[in-house]
């Protein structure tokens, strides 16, 4: 029998995780990547968002670890921080300061460049995976019933070749051309939806004060979509090498500028000035980088009545989310787990794609139900049931500012560690109905933490 072969389009985070799944099921895997992949944690043009804050939630971290055992230790050895949540989190949620209860979940905090490099190094230790860099897919081979490979082109020589494959997995991210390729195969246009709050990001890296270079919390001031003004946020992440990565964001009408002289002022102007105060005297190490790639956009591949055998998509090529929720990478990792489970169970490509749709559902609802509330947001208005549910979630998040059981339920869902359905378990509904006691009106930064920066 001929060896079985799978092709992964795109060698980003989702691509490397998909490749690490596929080697469990086929003899050879080829990853087709447009960029040259750096041998280090350096930014590259194919992942421009890597300049900005990237929180890896515990639900995603566990998924990566299950696919590539040893990755979390490798990340921590390379300087990533393990931030206990909510004990190492100073966070003003839409409804108030989150108390620093003992650890319930965790976040991996490092630069996106480091995360990608470590995951890639772990995946490529398997010599059944090879990478064709500087190469792009041109079209799918096969027909509307079954994909049999992909036609690729070298970006410099423009030489083309056909890669025959038993399975093609598209992970080319938000610019994926899969919807057009499906139409070329004779399939109908894929239904898509988007909710765009018009959010812009601005990010700068700072040298953390030596006394705060390690053991410092994530500090995060979120927006409240119910406020009548644009939603503005400021987030300080401790990353590797004793640095702080600070990301500011604002929805339509409240976008942060990339002018360096306005950075600290914007950080002070959000709902609480704590991030601005912490960075006021810190040494900047980078220019200010901007991004507008923040819309929630979903391709409902799983809704196509017919789907070709031998084709799956996952990661940002299926759905992107407003990045302030920090869910894209975790959903990519959990989708790779769904791919693994589907292949192990002998499911068809269509069944696997439907499974990936289910993985996307929770994060999609969480992001879009909030974002549509911001002034000037573009997208389908929430139906009545959605508006009622959203009122319940507002009260739940408010209750989470004092009631540990509700904080846990909320953080389990927010870190994608438990199904959203747990938010409506009888215990959580009852506590939410009772509501919060009086929450802290002040940032939950300790005296010691503040002194380590200002003192
Ligand atoms: C500003 C910003 C901040 C974010 N913050 C967070 C966060 O805090 N937490 C979180 O979990 N997520 C965050 N996200 C989302 C996260 O970046 C994505 O969900 C994640 O990168 C998805 O991985 P991916 O591999 O699907 O796509 P990508 O990371 O975009 O990778 C796509 C890969 O495909 C390659 N490629 C593209 N086109 C082609 C082609 N035609 N041929 C060959 N190769 C191609 C690219 O070079 C790249 O290697 C953020 C996103 C943005 C925009």
UniProtKB/TrEMBL annotation:
Residue numbers spanned by region Disordered: 434-455
PANTHER family xref list: THIAMINE THIAZOLE SYNTHASE
Name of this protein: Dehydrogenase (Flavoprotein)
Cross-referenced Pfam families: FAD_oxidored
Organism from which the protein derives: Lentzea waywayandensis
Signal peptide: none
Tree of life domain: Bacteria
């Amino acid at each position: 029998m001929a060896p079985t072969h799978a092709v992964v389009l795109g060698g980003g985070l989702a691509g490397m995780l998909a490749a690490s799944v596929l080697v469990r099921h086929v003899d050879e895997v080829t990853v087709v990547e447009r960029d040259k992949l750096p041998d280090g944690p350096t930014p590259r043009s194919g992942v421009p968002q890597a300049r900005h804050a990237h929180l890896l939630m515990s639900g995603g971290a566990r998924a990566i670890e299950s696919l590539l055992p040893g990755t979390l230790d490798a990340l921590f050895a390379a300087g990533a921080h393990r931030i206990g949540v909510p004990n190492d989190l100073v966070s003003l949620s839409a409804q108030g300061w989150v108390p620093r209860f003992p650890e319930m979940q965790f976040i991996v905090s490092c630069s996106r460049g480091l995360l990608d490099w470590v995951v890639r190094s772990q995946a490529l230790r398997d010599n059944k995976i090879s990478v064709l860099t500087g190469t792009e897919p041109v079209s799918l081979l096969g027909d509307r019933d079954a994909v049999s490979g992909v036609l690729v082109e070298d970006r410099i020589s423009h030489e083309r070749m056909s890669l025959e494959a038993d399975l093609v997995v598209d992970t080319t991210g938000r610019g994926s051309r899969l919807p057009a390729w499906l139409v070329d195969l004779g399939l109908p246009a894929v239904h898509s939806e988007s909710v765009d709050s018009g959010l812009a990001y601005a990010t700068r890296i700072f040298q953390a004060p030596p006394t705060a270079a390690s053991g410092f919390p994530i500090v995060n001031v979120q927006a409240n979509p119910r406020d009548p003004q644009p939603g503005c946020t400021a987030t300080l992440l401790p990353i590797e090498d004793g640095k702080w990565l600070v990301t500011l964001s604002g929805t339509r009408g409240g976008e942060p500028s990339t002018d360096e002289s306005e950075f600290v002022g914007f950080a002070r102007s959000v709902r609480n000035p704590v991030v601005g105060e912490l960075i006021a005297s810190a040494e900047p190490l980078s220019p200010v980088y901007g991004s507008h790639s923040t819309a929630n956009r979903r391709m409902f591949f799983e809704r196509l009545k017919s789907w070709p055998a031998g084709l799956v998509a996952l990661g940002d090529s299926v759905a992107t989310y407003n990045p302030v929720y920090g869910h894209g990478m975790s959903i990519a990792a959990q989708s790779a787990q769904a791919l693994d489970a589907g292949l192990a169970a002998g499911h068809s490509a269509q069944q696997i794609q439907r499974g990936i749709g289910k993985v996307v559902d929770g994060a999609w609802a969480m992001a879009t139900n909030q974002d549509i509330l911001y002034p000037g947001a573009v997208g389908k208005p929430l139906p009545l049931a959605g508006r009622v549910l959203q009122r319940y979630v507002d009260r739940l998040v408010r209750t989470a500012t004092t009631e540990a059981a509700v904080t846990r339920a909320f953080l389990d869902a927010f870190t994608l560690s438990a199904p959203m359905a747990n938010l409506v378990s009888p215990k959580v509904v009852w506590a939410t109905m009772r509501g919060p006691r009086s929450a802290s009106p002040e940032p939950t930064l300790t005296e010691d933490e503040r002194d380590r920066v200002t003192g």
